UniProtKB/TrEMBL annotation:
PROSITE patterns: HTH_LYSR (PS50931)
Protein name stated in the entry: LysR family transcriptional regulator
Database matches in Pfam families: HTH_1
Record organism: Nocardiopsis sediminis
Keyword DNA-binding set for record: yes
Family label: Belongs to the LysR transcriptional regulatory family.
HTH lysR-type domain ranges (all copies): 1-59
SUPFAM superfamilies: Winged helix' DNA-binding domain
UniProt-listed PANTHER family: HTH-TYPE TRANSCRIPTIONAL REGULATOR, HTH-TYPE TRANSCRIPTIONAL REGULATOR GLTR
Taxonomy, superkingdom: Bacteria
Amino acid sequence: MDIVGACRAFVSVSERGSFTLGAAAARIPQPVASRRIAALEQHLGARLFDRSTRRATLTPFGRDMLPSAKRLVRLAEAMEHDAERAKRTPLRLAVPDTCTTRDLALLDADARTHAIYLDLHTAPPAERAELLRSQQVGAAITEVPPDEGHWSVPLGLACTAQPRADTLYIETLRAGRGGRTARRRRIWIQPEDDVPHIRDRIMRTRDAVGLQPAQVAVAPALTSAAAEVYGSTDLLLASPAQARELDLHWRPIGELRLVRTFDITATDGDQAHRIRAALHDAIAHCLGAAG
């Protein structure tokens, strides 16, 4: 039996001296209140109300049980209040610092429609992993190898001048013969892509096509990488969405296919599954993910 519901009906009827008024106060039909109280009487083994009068008059046993019933109802109400407050406790989520303020706000708004409340922290990949490891956040959008991710973001090269070709080849950055002293064009890797499955592949391609080591560099921040590109003919390794935001021209790389791949990692596996299921599309939009 629903002992809490029965006690609520018992307390409400006793306070109003009427099954009809008590049921209305408890927001249940009068027959339901009567059945719950009858079930409680059967459970306790004695009558709570004297039904020989028109009013709902407590029996001596009912008067003795009323304080305990009130305590149980108060505890249940306190538990329901605590549960509602716990559900609204924000989940601290570490996200890539490449996400724009607008896209993060849209993610937060979408999460609230699923009763998920987020406290968002932007950080580069290594810092997100450390925040999760040290339990400073409850979950993080982490970069993972391509075959392990739920979201995929294509990467290419972006520059200020619109390229003539539909694809950019890294080998075209190789210096010509004749000992030219002009500054060689460089590819800038932003911190979000400073992970082995991206950084190492482009470094290997650099070496394979004969570029100088300095022609592929990791920038300390996306802002500084973009500044280098704006002030030169250099190239930025970026997603199409980032190129649009920075007003750069984006092309895929001819020699290799690079992607950022992300997953949700959480201290609670059920929480990670819930975020993936409820916020899959919103996270994809925030990351600029394909499909």
